[in-house]
Design goal:
Elements: E1 5-6, E2 8-11, H1 15-27, E3 33-37, H2 45-48, H3 60-63, H4 79-93, E4 99-101, E5 103-111, E6 116-123, E7 128-133, E8 136-138, E9 143-148, E10 162-164, E11 179-183, H5 187-197, E12 202-207, E13 213-216, H6 221-226, H7 232-256, H8 258-271, H9 279-283, E14 295-298, H10 301-307, E15 311-315, E16 318-322, E17 325-328, E18 333-335, E19 338-341, E20 345-347, E21 354-357, E22 360-361, E23 369-370, E24 374-375, E25 381-383, H11 392-413, E26 417-420, E27 428-430, H12 437-440, E28 448-450, H13 461-470, E29 478-481
Parallel strand pairs: 1-7, 2-3, 2-8, 3-4, 5-21, 8-25, 10-19, 11-12, 11-19, 12-15, 13-14
Antiparallel strand pairs: 5-6, 6-7, 9-20, 16-17, 17-18, 21-22, 23-24, 26-29, 27-28
Helix pairs in contact: 1-4, 1-11, 5-10, 7-8, 11-13
């Protein structure tokens, strides 16, 4: 690995990493950048997950990059289509050549004297090496690629069938004509169930508690109409902003009138389900909309599968596994040949990279997030964490733009570092205002956010757009400096 000093090192070649590298390369073609990717291919989530029906809840007009407009009619697309889009972005922007595969970052130490990071990297053969960079941009996502959240159920060894976690779906796995039980009610389960039902004998979704599920058109009706009368260059920004504004509007409406909005989601689900279906039991959660993520069913695929009798929803708790399937606490036994444990992810802050400052280890939980981008007390480090209520890429694009503004400020004023300085009067709040299980399990190891700007992390694109792109880069909380002579 080269011993030259990089201007920017990006960790992770998924949506965030590819987008960040492309933006930096566009604005600063002379800067030396590199992307380190621990796996053998780019794509992150969209290369890792291979289970049937893998797709995004987000539309491609906002999940895609602003710099690479989505031109195809279908807006809710599957994983392979997203992966292909990412590959095109990497090739067209020229960042594909900057990716080094099979390189896992284990640690990074900041030198105050030299104003640079020394990064320790392990390759796929177990060999370690170091490189140096002036700026470190972590685009590692938020969960472990090698380990999922997988609770143990009593009696699993007695089960005669197969137990599979979606994160580790077997290649070419055959399930035609089999009875399948999917444990879970989150986005993965809502995606898997109707896809499996196309070939399985029957699919049962077993959930402890329901989720809100909305019927979302797979093809954007505005895009379909406008594309017939307007050039593509005009249609894309119009449809993109329509999605941004509507998503923001409905989120605000849901948070202001949660009981009414939640009931409206349940009523809409009832319209797509057979008459007399127990919608309140299976599609009415005991939490407010956006306390956890609202799941999307493209073109109502889940509701259609239920209506056709190919899918059943069971809301109950597990007593134990038995040879023929799963015994519930209600006494019922669900017969199964295959059990899919869509039980969630394991959050892995900063990709488990060990940070230190002049050799002294950093405890992530002691830091506070600055503008949702940097961490207090840690110089020249940016992390990308997307929205919980909108497309991940919307925030990733804003963060990439902020990094470019910061680099430009360095160049124009001769600065070598920037570090947020925490204000002791700012109150602490959880980093993520979300009560999904995978978040609650990880809060202790995450940084905090503050109770006011610039330490508050808002889940609002329009607000972030103004703050990140247009507000002055200088701030009393952000200290700039130069290396010691």
């Amino acid at each position: 690995m080269s011993t030259e000093i990089l201007d920017v090192l990006i960790v992770g070649a998924g949506l965030s990493g590819i987008g960040a590298a492309a933006e930096i390369r566009r604005q600063f073609p002379a800067k030396k950048i590199a992307i380190l990717e621990s796996r053998d291919r780019l794509g992150g989530t969209w290369d890792l997950f291979r289970y049937p029906g893998i797709r995004s809840d987000s539309d491609m007009y906002t999940l895609g990059f602003k710099a690479k407009p989505w031109r195809k009619p279908k807006s809710i697309v599957d994983g392979p289509a997203i992966l292909n889009y990412l590959r095109e972005m990497a090739d067209e922007s020229g960042v594909a050549s900057t990716i080094q595969y099979g390189k896992r970052v284990e640690s990074a130490d900041w030198s105050s004297a030299r104003c640079e990071w020394t990064v320790t990297v392990r390759d796929r053969d177990g060999n370690t090496s170091t490189l140096h960079t002036r700026f470190l941009h972590l685009c590692t996502g938020y969960y472990s690629y090698t380990e999922a959240y997988r609770p143990h159920f009593e009696g699993e060894a007695d089960f005669r069938g197969q137990i599979i976690h979606p994160q580790f779906w077997p290649e070419n796995f055959e399930y035609t004509g089999r009875r399948i039980v999917v444990i879970g009610s989150g986005a993965t389960a809502i995606t898997l169930v109707p896809a499996l039902a196309e070939k399985a004998a029957h699919v049962t979704q077993l959930q402890r508690t329901p989720s809100y599920v909305v019927n979302q058109p797979g093809v954007d009706p505005w895009a379909r109409v406008l594309s017939k009368i307007l050039p593509a260059a005009i249609v894309y920004p119009m449809v993109r902003w329509k999605h941004i504004l509507l998503t923001s509007f409905f989120y605000r409406l849901a948070r202001k009138y949660p009981r009414w909005f939640g009931q409206r989601l349940v009523d809409l689900a009832a319209e797509d389900l057979p008459k007399g279906y127990d919608v309140a039991r299976h599609f009415k959660p005991d939490y407010n909309p956006w306390d956890q993520r609202v799941c999307a069913a493209p073109d109502g695929d889940l509701f259609q599968a239920i209506s056709k009798g190919r899918v059943s929803i069971v809301t109950d708790t597990i007593d134990r596994f038995v040879p023929e399937g799963i015994k519930l606490n209600s006494g019922e036994t669900l017969a199964a040949d295959i059990v899919v444990t869509a039980t969630g992810l394991k959050v892995l802050p900063l990709g488990a990279i060990q940070l230190s400052l002049d050799g002294k280890a950093v405890t992530l939980g002691d830091s506070m997030v600055y503008r949702g981008v940097m961490l207090s007390g840690i110089p020249n480090l940016v992390l990308t964490f997307g929205y919980t209520n909108a497309s991940w890429t919307l925030r990733a694009d804003l963060i990439a733009a902020y990094v470019c503004r910061l680099l430009d400020h360095f160049d124009r004023h001769g600065y070598h570092y920037a570090v947020p300085i925490r204000d002791s009067t700012v109150g602490e709040m959880p980093f993520i205002d979300f009560n999904s299980g995978y978040v609650l399990r990880a809060l202790e190891g995450l940084p905090t956010q503050g109770d006011r700007f610039p330490w508050r992390v808002h889940q609002t694109y329009l607000r972030d757009l103004g703050v990140t792109r247009f507000r002055r880069i200088t701030d009393p909380a952000l200290q700039f400096g130069r290396a010691q002579s």
